[in-house]
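HUMAN: Now follow token order:
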Amino acid sequence: MITLTLDDGVAEIVLDAPDRRNALALDDLTDLDAAYRRAADAGSRALVLRGEGRVFCAGRDISGVDPDTDDVTGYLRAVEQLMRRMAAHPAPTFAAVQGAALGVGLGLAIATDVVYVAETAMIGSPFAQLGALLDSGGHALLFDRLGPHRALDLIYTGDLLTGTEAVAAGLFSRAVPDADLLTFTRERARAAASGPTQAFLASKRLIASLRDERLWQVTAAETAGQEALRATDDYREGFAAFQQKRRPVFRGA
């Protein structure tokens, strides 16, 4: 479930499915895209994205996905469309990230202008246990900020960074004590909304011109790679193990 509120020029979009750790199915992507459109149409001067409950977003909801019939390409193309809309939103955007930000959840953070993370947040790629490919622009983020060796270390191991570690490594804007995160983010968004937003948007466009070519090229390549992996035995085993709540047994095929 996606909710949108508007208050004094600040839009707040909430991923509101804490029972499934705010994991996103295809319908949720459509609803989230629509919420960003409504916020833009309403003339919001700043936007906050957050997740309800203990987790920002655990990624794609794969609880009922059959990898043999799954339209993973369609899903990831919808993710890219959403990320592009988020990145182009005509106002400063802020994300408050607590708990896990994985897979698509990481992509939502990548597409946001300013990301404040709880000190104990968990950031990264759990795909080592799925036999799948890190997607949603994750390769671009990890390579650009961490370099090839650390990026591949995190991908191979599935290790996650705390919010404090992620900020120290340059992934996101600032780490904030968990209890202060939402208040801090809202205060920053309100300050931006009352500022010279046309000047902010000029800077946003310049930063986008430096960032976007690599990000969207990598995101498209991730989608193609994910579709190719869908035919492998390890991909099917990873999904089955996740759904059956057991450890996967990969055979490299």
Notes: The first strand starts at residue 2 and ends at 7. The radius of gyration is 18 Å. Residues 2-179+196-244 form a domain with the 2-enoyl-CoA Hydratase; Chain A, domain 1 fold (CATH 3.90.226.10).
